[in-house]
């Protein structure tokens, strides 16, 4: 069954037809969605059903993969060695000087132009002999608590990743989202002690999300901030939930994306700084992806006395979107790995460079 599942995806890739394979956090089922033609569908008002793939730049086009066929299989992850190395041959490269100068420029902009935070990133190019499917299985084995995916469209490209961050989930008229910021390398099993810089950065993201949703979400609930581990990294996470008084996905997504966790504050000014000063185009890195307007069916017994043991069906309309972090783009024998970090007035350029090195190992240990 599993072999048939992956063979179908390989056939689609060889035929240059769009598809996506993905597994949600802490689940064992892998879903495959297949489009029968190579047509490029674009989202306009987020009212259609399909799998969306959106760029960082919200002015760009959001791709909709049309679900012409859906298959599901079980995948039992293999045990992996949790030890991680630092790939010095990759991280000690010509990008270091540029990135350190970029971070300093970001700190200067915070002081001069009133930015509170800006997220700056870089792209690492490496050669790999592994197939996209081998890389995807390695992600599944290594990152059980992340959204792992392999996405392909012949007119866009081949991407895969393992992201720990939800942009939003809606279930009928209920919404859940999160703020995820702050990063520390795992040192043993204990959660780290967070400094003022990470705590401030996390609070900025939480406050922004709460403010952005106050007009469309009722009974807004904000959880306590907790430490969560994703691979060899720790993050700060705060959950936000509530009821949707006005169910307009386009409006909600526009309010949230790009979040301060991947862009900065104020959003407009931070985004302009990123587009002007980063030395590459992010494309779909720090965009979002996932299920749009899917139907979920639940069956329950309608007779408590079990006279006829009949069941009735409830149908939920759900959307599950994830921020495209910890990702890579594949082309021929090369992989482009994307990493970044949040810059505030407390940032130290050298330490910010080291943070991108630590983050890059999430994908580099899969590729190399």
TrEMBL record:
One Pfam family recorded for the sequence: Chorismate_bind
Chorismate-utilising enzyme C-terminal domain location: 99-296, 316-359
Top-level taxon of the source organism: Bacteria
InterPro entries hit by this protein: ADC_synthase, Chorismate_C
Protein name as it appears in the record: Isochorismate synthase
The species this protein was found in: Cellulophaga baltica
């Amino acid at each position: 069954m599993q072999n048939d599942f992956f063979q179908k995806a390989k056939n689609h890739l060889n035929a240059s037809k769009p598809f996506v394979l993905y597994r949600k956090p802490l689940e064992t089922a892998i879903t495959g969605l297949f489009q029968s033609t190579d047509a490029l569908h674009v989202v306009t008002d987020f009212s259609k059903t399909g799998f969306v793939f959106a760029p960082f730049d919200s002015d760009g086009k959001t791709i909709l993969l049309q679900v012409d066929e859906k298959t599901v299989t079980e995948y039992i992850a293999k045990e992996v060695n949790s030890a991680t190395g630092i790939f010095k041959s990759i991280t000690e490269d010509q990008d270091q000087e540029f990135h350190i100068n970029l971070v300093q420029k970001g700190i200067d902009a915070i002081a001069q132009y009133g930015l509170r935070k800006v997220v700056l990133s870089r792209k690492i190019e490496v050669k790999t002999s592994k197939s996209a499917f081998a890389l995807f299985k390695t992600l599944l084995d290594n990152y059980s608590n992340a959204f792992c995916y392999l996405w392909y469209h012949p007119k866009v490209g081949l991407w895969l990743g393992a992201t720990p961050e939800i942009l939003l989930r809606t279930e009928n008229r209920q919404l859940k989202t999160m703020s995820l910021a702050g990063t520390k390398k795992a040192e043993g099993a204990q959660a780290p002690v967070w400094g003022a810089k990470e705590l401030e950065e996390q609070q900025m993201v939480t406050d922004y999300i709460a403010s952005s949703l106050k007009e469309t979400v009722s009974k807004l609930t904000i959880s306590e901030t907790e430490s969560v581990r994703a691979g060899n990294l720790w993050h700060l996470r705060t959950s936000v939930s509530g009821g949707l008084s006005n169910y307009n996905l386009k409006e909600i997504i526009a309010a949230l994306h790009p979040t301060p966790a991947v862009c900065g504050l104020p959003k407009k000014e931070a985004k302009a700084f990123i587009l002007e000063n980063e030395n590459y185009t992010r494309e779909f890195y720090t965009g979002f992806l996932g299920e749009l307007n899917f139907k979920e069916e639940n069956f329950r017994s309608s007779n408590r006395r079990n006279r006829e043991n009949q069941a009735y069906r409830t149908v939920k309309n759900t959307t599950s979107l994830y921020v495209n972090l910890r990702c890579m783009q594949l082309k021929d024998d090369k992989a482009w790995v994307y990493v970044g970090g949040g810059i505030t007035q407390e940032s130290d350029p050298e330490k910010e460079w080291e943070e991108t090195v630590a983050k890059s190992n999430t994908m580099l240990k899969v590729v190399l």
